[in-house]
Amino acid sequence: MSENNGPIDPKQEERIRRAFKERDWNEIKSADSWAIFKVMSEFVEGFEKLAKIGPCVSVFGSARTPRDHKYYKMAEEIAAKLVRHGYGVITGGGPGIMEAGNKGAHSENGKSVGLNIVLPFEQFNNVYIDPDKLITFNYFFVRKVMFTKYAQGFIALPGGYGTLDELFEALTLIQTNKIGRFPIVLVGKEYWAGLVDWLKETMLAERNINVEDLDLFSIVDNPTDAVKVIDDFYSKYLLSPNY
Prior knowledge:
CATH topology of the largest domain: Rossmann fold
Number of domains: 2
Structural class: alpha/beta
Radius of gyration: 19 Å
Mean pLDDT: 90
Largest sheet: 7 strands, parallel
Low-confidence stretches: none
Strand content: 5-15%
Protein backbone atom coordinates (compact mmCIF):
# COMPACT_ATOMS: atom_id res chain seq x y z
CA MET A 1 0.00 0.00 0.00
CA SER A 2 1.43 3.35 -1.06
CA GLU A 3 1.97 6.07 1.53
CA ASN A 4 0.79 8.74 -0.90
CA ASN A 5 -2.22 8.91 -3.16
CA GLY A 6 -0.30 9.46 -6.37
CA PRO A 7 -1.55 11.71 -9.17
CA ILE A 8 -5.19 12.78 -8.91
CA ASP A 9 -7.55 12.47 -11.83
CA PRO A 10 -8.32 15.96 -13.25
CA LYS A 11 -12.05 15.53 -12.64
CA GLN A 12 -11.41 14.54 -9.04
CA GLU A 13 -9.05 17.47 -8.59
CA GLU A 14 -11.76 19.83 -9.83
CA ARG A 15 -14.25 18.38 -7.35
CA ILE A 16 -11.79 18.86 -4.53
CA ARG A 17 -11.13 22.46 -5.54
CA ARG A 18 -14.88 23.13 -5.78
CA ALA A 19 -15.29 21.95 -2.20
CA PHE A 20 -13.02 24.80 -1.04
CA LYS A 21 -14.65 27.45 -3.20
CA GLU A 22 -16.65 30.06 -1.34
CA ARG A 23 -20.26 30.38 -2.49
CA ASP A 24 -22.75 33.13 -1.82
CA TRP A 25 -26.01 32.46 -0.02
CA ASN A 26 -28.20 32.45 -3.14
CA GLU A 27 -25.96 29.89 -4.81
CA ILE A 28 -26.00 27.67 -1.73
CA LYS A 29 -29.76 28.00 -1.30
CA SER A 30 -30.47 27.19 -4.92
CA ALA A 31 -28.18 24.15 -5.11
CA ASP A 32 -29.18 22.69 -1.76
CA SER A 33 -32.90 23.20 -2.31
CA TRP A 34 -32.72 21.33 -5.62
CA ALA A 35 -30.74 18.51 -3.96
CA ILE A 36 -33.43 18.16 -1.28
CA PHE A 37 -36.13 17.63 -3.91
CA LYS A 38 -34.01 15.02 -5.71
CA VAL A 39 -33.42 13.14 -2.46
CA MET A 40 -37.12 13.30 -1.60
CA SER A 41 -38.09 11.93 -5.01
CA GLU A 42 -35.83 8.91 -4.53
CA PHE A 43 -37.30 8.20 -1.10
CA VAL A 44 -40.84 8.49 -2.45
CA GLU A 45 -40.18 6.13 -5.36
CA GLY A 46 -38.49 3.61 -3.07
CA PHE A 47 -41.27 3.67 -0.48
CA GLU A 48 -43.99 3.36 -3.11
CA LYS A 49 -42.40 0.44 -4.96
CA LEU A 50 -41.23 -1.53 -1.93
CA ALA A 51 -43.96 -0.96 0.65
CA LYS A 52 -45.84 -4.15 -0.26
CA ILE A 53 -43.08 -6.54 -1.32
CA GLY A 54 -43.47 -8.74 1.76
CA PRO A 55 -40.66 -10.46 3.68
CA CYS A 56 -37.33 -10.25 1.86
CA VAL A 57 -33.65 -10.87 2.47
CA SER A 58 -31.03 -8.40 1.24
CA VAL A 59 -28.10 -10.12 -0.49
CA PHE A 60 -24.82 -8.19 -0.68
CA GLY A 61 -21.70 -8.99 -2.68
CA SER A 62 -19.22 -7.89 -5.30
CA ALA A 63 -20.19 -6.55 -8.71
CA ARG A 64 -16.93 -7.99 -10.05
CA THR A 65 -17.59 -11.68 -9.38
CA PRO A 66 -17.61 -13.61 -12.70
CA ARG A 67 -20.43 -15.98 -13.55
CA ASP A 68 -18.25 -19.08 -13.34
CA HIS A 69 -17.00 -18.24 -9.82
CA LYS A 70 -18.06 -20.41 -6.90
CA TYR A 71 -19.47 -17.44 -5.01
CA TYR A 72 -21.65 -16.44 -7.97
CA LYS A 73 -23.08 -19.95 -8.02
CA MET A 74 -23.53 -19.92 -4.26
CA ALA A 75 -25.38 -16.60 -4.38
CA GLU A 76 -27.68 -17.95 -7.08
CA GLU A 77 -28.43 -21.06 -5.05
CA ILE A 78 -28.98 -19.06 -1.85
CA ALA A 79 -31.48 -16.80 -3.57
CA ALA A 80 -33.35 -19.74 -5.08
CA LYS A 81 -33.54 -21.43 -1.67
CA LEU A 82 -34.76 -18.21 -0.04
CA VAL A 83 -37.62 -18.01 -2.53
CA ARG A 84 -38.52 -21.66 -1.98
CA HIS A 85 -38.63 -20.91 1.75
CA GLY A 86 -40.99 -17.99 1.21
CA TYR A 87 -38.73 -14.95 0.98
CA GLY A 88 -38.13 -12.41 -1.74
CA VAL A 89 -34.62 -11.24 -2.60
CA ILE A 90 -33.25 -7.69 -2.60
CA THR A 91 -29.88 -6.97 -4.25
CA GLY A 92 -28.00 -3.94 -5.46
CA GLY A 93 -29.32 -4.66 -8.93
CA GLY A 94 -25.98 -4.80 -10.72
CA PRO A 95 -23.72 -7.55 -12.11
CA GLY A 96 -21.70 -10.15 -10.20
CA ILE A 97 -23.12 -11.41 -6.92
CA MET A 98 -26.07 -9.06 -7.32
CA GLU A 99 -26.97 -10.58 -10.67
CA ALA A 100 -26.63 -14.06 -9.20
CA GLY A 101 -29.03 -13.19 -6.39
CA ASN A 102 -31.64 -11.80 -8.74
CA LYS A 103 -31.15 -14.74 -11.12
CA GLY A 104 -31.74 -17.28 -8.36
CA ALA A 105 -34.90 -15.50 -7.22
CA HIS A 106 -36.14 -15.14 -10.80
CA SER A 107 -35.56 -18.84 -11.52
CA GLU A 108 -38.03 -19.76 -8.76
CA ASN A 109 -40.56 -17.08 -9.77
CA GLY A 110 -39.92 -15.21 -6.54
CA LYS A 111 -39.81 -11.50 -5.87
CA SER A 112 -36.58 -10.13 -7.32
CA VAL A 113 -35.78 -6.56 -6.27
CA GLY A 114 -32.90 -4.51 -7.69
CA LEU A 115 -31.71 -1.30 -6.05
CA ASN A 116 -29.43 0.04 -8.76
CA ILE A 117 -27.02 2.97 -8.33
CA VAL A 118 -25.65 5.40 -10.91
CA LEU A 119 -21.86 4.97 -11.01
CA PRO A 120 -19.11 5.87 -13.50
CA PHE A 121 -18.06 2.20 -13.72
CA GLU A 122 -19.20 -1.39 -13.08
CA GLN A 123 -22.82 -0.75 -12.23
CA PHE A 124 -25.63 -1.51 -14.66
CA ASN A 125 -28.85 -3.28 -13.84
CA ASN A 126 -29.10 -6.99 -14.57
CA VAL A 127 -31.95 -8.60 -16.51
CA TYR A 128 -33.28 -10.79 -13.69
CA ILE A 129 -35.00 -8.01 -11.73
CA ASP A 130 -38.79 -7.74 -11.70
CA PRO A 131 -39.56 -4.75 -13.96
CA ASP A 132 -41.77 -3.12 -11.31
CA LYS A 133 -39.10 -3.64 -8.62
CA LEU A 134 -36.12 -1.96 -10.29
CA ILE A 135 -35.18 1.37 -8.77
CA THR A 136 -32.15 3.42 -9.80
CA PHE A 137 -30.65 5.75 -7.20
CA ASN A 138 -28.18 8.62 -7.36
CA TYR A 139 -27.62 8.68 -3.61
CA PHE A 140 -26.01 5.80 -1.74
CA PHE A 141 -27.58 6.77 1.57
CA VAL A 142 -31.12 6.61 0.16
CA ARG A 143 -30.35 3.22 -1.39
CA LYS A 144 -29.06 1.89 1.93
CA VAL A 145 -32.28 2.92 3.65
CA MET A 146 -34.17 0.69 1.21
CA PHE A 147 -31.79 -2.22 1.84
CA THR A 148 -32.47 -2.09 5.58
CA LYS A 149 -36.05 -0.83 5.78
CA TYR A 150 -37.55 -3.61 3.67
CA ALA A 151 -35.37 -6.60 4.62
CA GLN A 152 -35.97 -9.21 7.32
CA GLY A 153 -32.44 -10.54 7.04
CA PHE A 154 -29.07 -9.88 5.41
CA ILE A 155 -26.68 -12.23 3.62
CA ALA A 156 -23.22 -10.95 2.65
CA LEU A 157 -21.05 -12.81 0.18
CA PRO A 158 -17.48 -11.73 -0.63
CA GLY A 159 -17.21 -8.19 -1.95
CA GLY A 160 -15.34 -4.92 -1.73
CA TYR A 161 -15.84 -1.52 -0.13
CA GLY A 162 -19.49 -1.34 -1.15
CA THR A 163 -20.27 -4.72 0.39
CA LEU A 164 -18.52 -3.74 3.62
CA ASP A 165 -20.41 -0.46 3.65
CA GLU A 166 -23.75 -2.27 3.37
CA LEU A 167 -22.75 -4.94 5.90
CA PHE A 168 -21.60 -2.49 8.55
CA GLU A 169 -24.62 -0.28 7.97
CA ALA A 170 -26.83 -3.21 8.95
CA LEU A 171 -24.61 -4.15 11.89
CA THR A 172 -24.56 -0.58 13.18
CA LEU A 173 -28.34 -0.17 12.95
CA ILE A 174 -28.89 -3.42 14.84
CA GLN A 175 -26.19 -2.68 17.42
CA THR A 176 -27.75 0.72 18.17
CA ASN A 177 -31.32 -0.63 18.20
CA LYS A 178 -32.37 1.50 15.24
CA ILE A 179 -33.81 -1.60 13.56
CA GLY A 180 -34.75 -5.02 14.89
CA ARG A 181 -32.13 -7.68 15.48
CA PHE A 182 -32.53 -9.31 12.09
CA PRO A 183 -30.17 -12.16 11.18
CA ILE A 184 -26.94 -11.30 9.39
CA VAL A 185 -25.05 -14.08 7.60
CA LEU A 186 -21.53 -13.94 6.17
CA VAL A 187 -20.94 -16.55 3.46
CA GLY A 188 -17.39 -17.80 2.89
CA LYS A 189 -15.42 -18.54 6.06
CA GLU A 190 -12.06 -18.26 4.33
CA TYR A 191 -12.90 -14.86 2.85
CA TRP A 192 -14.25 -13.31 6.05
CA ALA A 193 -11.77 -14.91 8.49
CA GLY A 194 -9.28 -12.03 8.46
CA LEU A 195 -11.96 -9.43 9.11
CA VAL A 196 -13.49 -11.43 11.94
CA ASP A 197 -10.05 -11.96 13.51
CA TRP A 198 -9.44 -8.21 13.36
CA LEU A 199 -12.80 -7.50 14.99
CA LYS A 200 -11.87 -9.84 17.83
CA GLU A 201 -8.16 -9.13 18.22
CA THR A 202 -8.14 -5.39 17.60
CA MET A 203 -11.57 -3.80 17.81
CA LEU A 204 -12.78 -5.88 20.74
CA ALA A 205 -9.37 -5.76 22.45
CA GLU A 206 -9.50 -1.94 22.29
CA ARG A 207 -13.02 -2.11 23.77
CA ASN A 208 -14.50 -0.35 20.76
CA ILE A 209 -17.20 -3.02 20.62
CA ASN A 210 -18.66 -5.34 23.25
CA VAL A 211 -18.21 -9.09 23.13
CA GLU A 212 -21.94 -9.57 22.47
CA ASP A 213 -21.59 -7.49 19.30
CA LEU A 214 -19.77 -10.44 17.78
CA ASP A 215 -23.01 -12.41 18.08
CA LEU A 216 -24.80 -10.08 15.66
CA PHE A 217 -23.65 -12.16 12.68
CA SER A 218 -23.14 -15.79 11.72
CA ILE A 219 -20.51 -17.24 9.36
CA VAL A 220 -21.30 -20.16 7.07
CA ASP A 221 -19.74 -21.90 4.10
CA ASN A 222 -22.64 -23.10 1.97
CA PRO A 223 -26.08 -22.03 0.74
CA THR A 224 -28.00 -24.52 2.86
CA ASP A 225 -26.49 -23.23 6.10
CA ALA A 226 -26.98 -19.61 5.02
CA VAL A 227 -30.72 -20.05 4.55
CA LYS A 228 -30.94 -22.21 7.68
CA VAL A 229 -29.71 -19.29 9.80
CA ILE A 230 -32.59 -17.18 8.49
CA ASP A 231 -35.15 -19.97 9.00
CA ASP A 232 -33.90 -20.87 12.48
CA PHE A 233 -34.02 -17.25 13.58
CA TYR A 234 -37.66 -16.82 12.67
CA SER A 235 -38.70 -20.26 13.94
CA LYS A 236 -37.77 -19.04 17.43
CA TYR A 237 -40.56 -16.50 17.15
CA LEU A 238 -42.98 -18.93 15.46
CA LEU A 239 -42.91 -16.66 12.41
CA SER A 240 -43.01 -17.79 8.80
CA PRO A 241 -42.42 -15.68 5.68
CA ASN A 242 -46.15 -15.15 5.22
CA TYR A 243 -46.53 -13.29 8.53
